[in-house]
Amino acid sequence: MEQPSPPASLPKYLAEGLPKQDTETLDEVQRYIEALIEYRDQSVDTDGLPETAEPVDRPDNTEKGTVVKEKVTCGDASCKCASGDPADMHGPYLYRYYRENGTMKSEYVGKPSSE
């Protein structure tokens, strides 16, 4: 059996360094990688969400992360939403919070169907 080729996306220092490791170290690296992927794919802890975010249960949701209902400001300084008062904010809208490369991100999902 021939040694496998690394993926083209693998940085050179890893592509050159990994084959030099013993089997025990490679097993540890594999466990670390699996744990890191699991960590990045987990739902976002509600403690890390904005105060105005309200998690919603979406059984049809196959995406990673946590879907929340959230009121937002539009960014227009002359709009009454700029005060930050939840009563003056726009929405609610659905956003999905997730981790990507260890950083929490969000993306717009849409308007809640019951609104």
Short description:
With 115 residues, the chain is an alpha+beta fold. It is built from 2 helices and 4 strands.
Structural summary, described in words:
By secondary structure, this protein is an alpha+beta fold. The protein folds into 2 domains: 12-41; 46-110, no CATH class. Helices cover 22% and strands 24% of the residues. Strands 1-2-3-4 form a 4-stranded antiparallel sheet. Strand 3 (90-100) and strand 4 form a beta hairpin. The radius of gyration is 21 Å and the shape is elongated. 10% of the residues are buried.
The global form is elongated
Mean pLDDT: 83
Number of strands: 4
N-end to C-end Cα span: 60 Å
What structural category arises from helix and sheet content?
alpha+beta
Reading the helices and strands in chain order gives HHEEEE
Count of helical regions: 2
Radius of gyration: 21 Å
Point out poorly predicted stretches.
none
What count of domains describes the coordinates?
A: 2
Q: Enumerate the strands of the largest sheet in spatial order, edge to edge or round the barrel.
A: 1-2-3-4
How would you characterize the largest beta sheet?
4 strands, antiparallel
What multimeric state do the chains show?
A: single chain
Strand residue content: 15-25%
Helix content: 10-25%
